[in-house]
Specification:
Elements lengths: L6 H37 L3 H29 L1 H21 L3 H15 L3 H11 L3 H33 L3 H4 L1 H15 L13 H24 L4 H23 L13 H31 L4 H7 L1 H21 L2 H18 L8 H27 L7 H27 L5 H29 L2 H18 L13
């Protein structure tokens, strides 16, 4: 049942509902990290189990976001969005009741199955609700702010809940939020769908799962089995075979799951790459920071969460400003600032030891907060700008896939590096190399920011937009190997 409300108020309500879904889905990436030491003690979980507790969520998100976005475009965005809320709530209940680490990992996968139907679909709902470009840019900025704020809020709220009520409370807190969002979505979110819905692509979906699942599984389990293990080598062989098969199959399909023609736009392709690299750095930060503060420095869960408070505050304050700046002047400056901040934060973190002065540690987190506050709005806006509304769900899904794959790889690589470290000095020595990798990621983001905002890149975006405009009008599109006119 829908109710009649003034158009401006209704748009704000839709934005608020979409932001609520963003808060719970994204917060559950970061809120779990502060609870990892407690989960480890309570469930007698190995380090690989902790990695899977994080990566089961992000990996399922990455693997099925594309299908969720295109399905929403086809069958209805509100319908898929509400289904996602219900499944996410069920997964949260199962996580809170999990009796062992295996059950928790499985429940996290259920939770993520619901999450796949939230963020990219919410972004598509916002795009179709806010039709004015400037107004849409501001709305995306607010949505991006909630994304970053959720990541910063997670450790603080998680620390308070873990210390007061235990780690299971971090999942129970989702239930009332999801229930309220579900009721409000039914009443206020209008139904929308693409004029021409894309067909489900089971072969493409299977190949995506094989590539992502095999790669992340190999990285996580390599610390225990070794890179020369037959299982690890077999998984890497699956990746080597499935990836080119995916590209070959999708380029020949009329309505592919992975729409590779989107990557003819250099800004779009660069946005996806920057999302991957940026959130790989974020995955490293989440995993290593939690263990460093609690296991190396001996802080409580709440104290550890408060230490990353600067990240959340800066995200909350700066992200809306960044969104407005992107809408007015473009994405180049925020992306350069983000890349420099990530590299600087990684360089300082590489010097951390058990006795590093806390103000130095907090200063590094301030710089990391600047990175998080300035990276999300330009990526989100670049990923969907210039695309017709019929492609909004798919384009938003690809940006989210880049983020989730990045987090999965960052956590997997960080966990592999420190998995065998049992003493504080061993942990900081093992983490140093990973932080230097983060420095490299920041440098790559700066380079991509400069390349993707130049005249040639913008011209490629115009050609890609013209291509999809023709597709949207029902014209015949020929896939050519050479440059498009």
């Amino acid at each position: 049942m829908e109710v009649s409300t003034p158009p401006d108020r209704r748009r704000m309500l839709v934005l608020a509902i979409c932001c609520a879904s963003m808060v719970v889905a994204i917060m559950d990436i970061s809120i779990v990290n502060v609870a990892l030491p407690s989960i480890r003690r309570d469930l007698a979980a190995p380090v690989s189990g902790l990695e899977w507790t994080v990566d089961a969520y992000t990996l399922v998100l990455a693997a099925f976001l594309l299908a969720a976005g295109s399905t929403a475009d086809r069958v209805g965005r509100r319908r898929v969005f509400m289904t996602g809320l219900a499944v996410f709530g069920l997964g949260s209940v199962l996580c809170a009741l999990a009796p062992g680490i295996g059950w928790l990992v499985a429940a996290r996968a259920v939770q993520a199955a619901g999450g796949t139907m939230l963020n990219p679909v919410a972004l598509a709902i916002i795009v179709t609700t806010f039709t004015d470009p400037a107004e849409r840019a501001r709305a995306i900025g607010v949505f991006g702010a909630m994304s970053g704020f959720s990541l910063g809020l997670g450790p603080i709220l998680g620390g308070a809940l873990v210390d007061a009520l235990g780690w299971r409370a971090i999942f129970w807190v989702n239930v009332p939020i999801v229930a309220a969002a579900l009721v409000c979505a039914r009443r206020f979110v209008p139904e929308s769908r693409a004029a021409h819905g894309r067909r489900f692509d089971p072969v493409g979906q299977l190949l995506v799962v094989l590539v992502l699942g095999s790669l992340v599984f190999a990285i996580i389990e390599s610390a225990r089995l070794g890179w020369t293990s037959p299982l690890i080598l077999g998984l890497l062989a699956v990746v080597a075979l499935a990836l080119p098969a995916l590209i070959r199959y999708e380029t020949r399909r009329r309505e592919p799951l992975l729409e590779l023609r989107l990557f003819r736009s250099v800004p779009f392709g660069s946005a996806i790459a920057m999302a991957l690299f940026a959130f790989a750095g974020f995955g490293v930060f989440l995993f290593l920071t939690t263990l460093y503060l609690q296991s190396v420095r001996g802080l409580s869960a709440l104290a550890a969460g408060l230490c990353v408070l600067p990240v959340g505050v800066l995200i909350l304050v700066l992200t809306p400003q960044t969104g407005r700046f992107v809408g007015a002047r473009g994405p180049r400056a925020p992306l350069v600032v983000a890349g420099v901040a990530l590299a600087l934060s990684g360089a300082v973190s590489a010097c951390f030891g058990p006795a590093t002065p806390l103000p130095v540690v907090l200063g590094s987190y301030v710089v990391f907060g600047i990175f998080q506050a300035t990276i999300n709005p330009p990526i989100a806006n670049t990923a969907i700008s210039g695309m017709p509304r019929s492609m909004a769900g798919l384009a938003g899904s690809l940006a989210s896939v880049g983020r989730q794959v990045g987090v999965s790889l960052g956590v997997a690589i960080a966990g592999t590096a420190v998995g065998s470290a049992h003493r504080a000095a061993e942990f900081t020595a093992a983490a140093r190399g990973i932080w230097l990798l983060v420095v490299g990621l920041g440098v790559v983001i700066v380079v991509l920011a400069l390349v993707s905002t130049g005249p040639r890149a913008l011209a490629s975006a115009g050609r890609a937009a013209a291509l999809f405009d023709e597709m949207e009008r029902g014209g015949t599109v020929t896939v050519r190997k050479g440059p498009q006119p």
